[in-house]
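The passage that follows is intended for readers who have already worked through the single-chain material. We present the inputs for a multi-component assembly, then the predicted structure in tokenized form, and finally a short commentary. You are encouraged to pause after the input and sketch how you expect the pieces to fit together before reading on.
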Amino acid sequence: MPTIRKRVCNPINEEEIELRRGPWTLEEDTLLIHYIASHGEGHWNMLAKYAGLKRTGKSCRLRWLNYLKPDIKRGNLTPQEQLLILELHSKWGNRWSKIAQHLPGRTDNEIKNYWRTRVQKQARQLNIESNSKTFLDAVRYFWMPRLIQKMEQTSSSSSSSPLINTHNSSSAPSPLPNSNKIASSSLPSSCPLPSKLTNTANHSNGYLSSITNPPCVFPSDSIIPHLPQLPQYPTSPPDHEFGKTAYNTNSIQNNSRFAISSSYDMEGGLNLVENNSGTEAFDISQFDTQMAASDWVLDNMADTLWNMEEI
DNA sequence: AACGCCTTCAACCGCAATTCG
DNA sequence: CCGAATTGCGGTTGAAGGCGT
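Having made your guess, compare it with the prediction:
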């Protein structure tokens, strides 16, 4: 039940109204949807008043943009989307709205929540700062490959029984299927962890046991067919450099290997290198150097990393 | 069954940027 | 140019549900 906490001076006609707060009711949602359907978005304060909503304009805007808008995607983030978030965050930091622009149907709020509840949780478990270079390395060398593996896995099984459901178009809150219930033991071993990890980890869930050799190199024929499955990735705006490179189908197909560069800088995020065809691909050449710098976390990571399976 | 803790995410808040008169 | 209104953004909060004991 929404609370009524404030009395504010209405900017339209100076009268004071009770403003509702808290969860939106079905009736409020309906009012908002119908009003926008016939009058369009914008002028949120006026909209709130004329739609008969006892809400602030800000609240109406937020409700519409984050929940009611027809193209909002409900459900868990796909591995592709998670990978993209990790990548874009490494490049832009907490620029949630900017990141959200590259995930159609996803809101900045949703991405922000994902980062805080899933990603930062992992950082805490690793006992490292989520914005530290060490954690970025962990993301790059272990998490991203795992997500790519999931992309492969879901892609290969999607024809029969999709593991990921991200297109629940229902606008009503509902229990969502857990997309993370992927059998660890069935995962391919195309992206092994550094052998150093295997010395400290011996989990029986099958995850670490399936990945025992460094570095993460993706055979082109395993990853290529699946990366283009980011079709919802929008056409790149002028300032968007990542989208036209890392997930460029042709660029990947023109490379015999697909790997993640260890070279990081705050401006550029993941570094991409040009191949001889003029397109770009991840570069694995600096992998060893970076790994050495992160030795300590590798020792600690093995015990916690498998938890990423839950993400 | 009941309780408490934990996680998730919708919603709110404050502030900055932008628009408008 | 200025001030007010509006919009957009990122950080934070708290209700609800899940889960373990």
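Commentary: The first helix of chain A runs from residue 26 to 39. Residues 21-24, 56, 58-59, 62-63, 66-67, 109-110, 113-114, 116-118, 121, 173 of chain A lie near DNA strand B (CB under 10 Å from a C1'). How closely did your sketch match?
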